[in-house]
Amino acid sequence: MGAVRQVQVTFDCADPERVALFWCEVLGYVVPPPPPGFDSWDAFDRSLPPEHQGSAFACQDPTGAGPRLFFQRVPEGKVVKNRLHLDVRVGTGLAGAERLAALEAESARLSALGARQVRVMPADGVDESCIVMQDVEGNEFCLD
């Protein structure tokens, strides 16, 4: 059996570019270069049939260590809890009040970008506390 070389995480959404740019800010990701022959993603997008314009966008870890994120437009809106979510690790190596302060600071930063804090999940003796958030289109993710 072959080894997995790369992983891409795909999000269904209404506005792929908006959601991708939000996640660039969250994770320090960048927009990849446009396809060969195009000087910008806008130029590439204009080359597509009208029904496909604005239908997809991507971002990637500039170091190449993290997975590529792909955002595709779908006609239906989000109606239930995600079956999969991202955990954004911001409190790694911290404990107690220091960890909670780091989580709250990141929650405030992301809220300024359009995210919404849903709830704080206190430590239960097994798992450490985390903050459940929603991105700009309501997709859940955790700060932990």
Please tell me about this protein's structure:
By secondary structure, the chain is α/β, with parallel strands linked by helices. It folds into two domains: 66 residues, Signal recognition particle alu RNA binding heterodimer, srp9/1 (2-Layer Sandwich), CATH 3.30.720; 58 residues, 2,3-Dihydroxybiphenyl 1,2-Dioxygenase, domain 1 (Roll). 24% of the residues lie in helices and 24% in strands. It is built from three helices and seven strands. The strands form two sheets. Strands 4-7-6-5 form a four-stranded mixed β-sheet, with helices on one face. It has a three-stranded mixed β-sheet with strand order 1-3-2, with helices on one face. Strand 6 and strand 7 form a beta hairpin. The longest helix is centred in the C-terminal third of the chain and has 17 residues. The mean pLDDT is 89.
Kindly summarize this structure in a few lines.
With 144 residues, the chain is α/β, with parallel strands linked by helices. The chain contains 3 helices and 7 strands; from the N terminus they run E-H-H-E-E-E-H-E-E-E. This is Catechol 2,3-dioxygenase-like lactoylglutathione lyase family enzyme.
